[in-house]
Model the fold of this input.
Amino acid sequence: ASPYAGDNEMMKIEAYLDEHLGAGSAAAEVLMDKLVELKQMLVEEIVHFVFEKTDGTTRDAYGTRAVDVIRRYETAPAAQKPQRAFNGTFPYFDIEKGEWRCFRVDKFVKIDKDYVL
Done:
């Protein structure tokens, strides 16, 4: 049984990483731990994190899933509906763009824990 039972999003991400990095591989486990931590932080605050874009460049993102923060952007139509995760992507609300964005979970680099808003 998955340790993420009950969290549909994290179960899908775990399955994607197992498929792309090898089931139970150290790389998949380390990445999963980082993504679980990122998800927990995003629910409460704005987080600075880094991922690799599809073109190979890195992107510094400032995102959240905190409802009270997202509400400040409600004038933007994109703020209304969160993006659904699909095929290995992780949605977050980009506070710089004022809209929902996502990144491929296997391209996640790190959380900047020194960033405090």
